[in-house]
Amino acid sequence: MSSISAQGVVERASAELTKRINGLGLRTSKHHVHSLPNLTVLSLSGCSKVTDDGVELIAENLPRLRSLDLSWCSRITDAALEYIACDLNNLEELTLDRCVHITDIGVGYISTMVSLSALFLRWCSQLRDFGLQHLCVMRSLQVLSVAGCPLLTSSGLSSLIQLRHLHELELTNCPGTSRELFDYLREHLPRCLIIE
């Protein structure tokens, strides 16, 4: 099977799983999760019925996931991030945009993931500077977005200079930013694209 047709099969399987999860809830989709142990990319963006229990089921049964998108999953909390951090050891990209119940505690769980290279936390309204401190220990992190996070301060954002391997940092619509902060970040992270 060619890589293009194999990718098509995976995309159809992922799309079917997403459709079933959003329509029925994840608990009733347990069979479908078990039938895709080799799945590497899963987007559940906007699946309003996905809960922490559903994420636990995914984390326990899809160990080969490399990319997971849970953006706009309004029921996700810090507990889901604990399941992800404990079980998805191959995860390289995690998208949690607009997951409004995620706090610094959940980000602390995520910070233990050594293979994670891209993390998207756009508009996570409970993320604070303490959560950023957790992220500063992530040596493999290359892409980070905290765009629109209203509680982040200039002090917290300036601590991100500890992420020496960062290639891209998105800070659009962060009230804690300033021209001085952007200059400071660019000075200390010269290889990083800072998106204002």
From TrEMBL:
One of its GO terms (cellular component) is SCF ubiquitin ligase complex. Pfam families: DUF7885, LRR_6. Residues 33-109 form the F-box/LRR-repeat protein 15-like leucin rich repeat domain. GO terms for biological process: SCF-dependent proteasomal ubiquitin-dependent protein catabolic process. This is F-box/LRR-repeat protein 15-like leucin rich repeat domain-containing protein. It comes from Atta cephalotes. The lineage of its organism: Eukaryota, Metazoa, Ecdysozoa, Arthropoda, Hexapoda.
